[in-house]
Amino acid sequence: MLCPYCLNSETKVIDKRDNESLTKRRRECLKCSKRFNTLEAVERPEFRVIKKDGRRENFDYEKLKRGVLKACEKRPISSEKIDKMLARTEERLRKRGKEVKSTLIGDIVASELKKIDKVAYIRFASVYREFRELDDFKKEITFLVNR
Amino acid sequence: MLCPYCLNSETKVIDKRDNESLTKRRRECLKCSKRFNTLEAVERPEFRVIKKDGRRENFDYEKLKRGVLKACEKRPISSEKIDKMLARTEERLRKRGKEVKSTLIGDIVASELKKIDKVAYIRFASVYREFRELDDFKKEITFLVNR
DNA sequence: ATTACGAACACAATATATTGTGTTTTCCTC
DNA sequence: GAGGAAAACACAATATATTGTGTTCGTAAT
Known about the structure:
The structure is a homodimer. The first copy, chain A, has helices spanning about 60-70, 80-95, 100-115, 120-130, 135-145; strands at about 10-20, 20-30, 35-40, 50, 55-60, 100. Chain A has 2 domains: about 10-40, no CATH class; about 50-145. Chain A is elongated, with a radius of gyration of 23 Å. By secondary structure, chain A is of the alpha+beta class. In chain A, helix 1 (about 60-70) packs across helix 4 (about 120-130), helix 2 packs antiparallel against helix 3 (about 100-115) and helix 3 runs antiparallel to helix 4 (about 120-130). In chain A, the strands form 2 sheets. Chain A has a 3-stranded antiparallel beta sheet, with no helix packed on it. A 3-stranded mixed beta sheet of chain A has the order 5-4-6. The first copy, chain A, contains 5 helices and 6 strands. The mean pLDDT of chain A is about 85. The interface of A and B includes residues 2, 21, 25, 56 and 58 of A. Strand 3 of chain A pairs antiparallel with strand 3 (about 35-40) of chain B, so a sheet runs across the interface. The structure holds a DNA duplex.
């Protein structure tokens, strides 16, 4: 922890108080003796999505969910399974940093769906990856069927 | 520190790593045993904002950020650029003393946005400066277009 | 001016986090 | 599918943070 005044990295904790989901510590720099506070919080950084045309928007979980639910429509997949899959997806995206390309979202969702339900996967892939030719479709299906 | 999964408040630290000015801890919930990370960072010293009616309130970085993000919505501006711009803005405000007028915030944000993205600038200015007349708007636009 | 509340301060007894090092896993890239 | 980087995992010896309680100070509301 860097002292915000002299940038020294050795500090000690003088006091600590918890507050719901936040932990506040009072620290003292071992070098310049100045005091300052720090906050500890659960890591859940926001991230943004870069669309194909370069525009940015905040990640929208509900939007992701809608897309996935649509692909899973009428398929025998429990809500629980879907929720877990969505959580995993969000985690994977979060790990990619503060900004992720929208195409990456599609890729990750696809890879997750593939693990769960082939039909849902194909449905999703056909939309998100914008399979240009029926050929791509056919290739994917052949590939899946052969396994 | 609340476990983000079961909301239990007892957790233990499994690991900790420092990274420049951030401290990352890995924790385990004593109840559900799930693991999660936390981040500790220096708390920015506070300063206050004088609102138009004279009332004071603490400067709220998140609020500032929300306003700016709103103005930048759907614009091709990277998070990094926005974050830097926000940091610069906060620094400029901080230098103005322990109390700053709310109108100053608007002016500084506007001047920063102007450097980055004209559209975002106009959006922001139209809200924060409460352009009374469409005229003001028109004038600004004409001015910008002519450059 | 008075009250009330949260923030800062202090301190001592105790419990828990930290550090260093090394291994394993995950997942992105090619 | 292979290679490689980053994150997670593990663990033991040691140092440091935490907790509880109480006082004081600053500032907002009355």
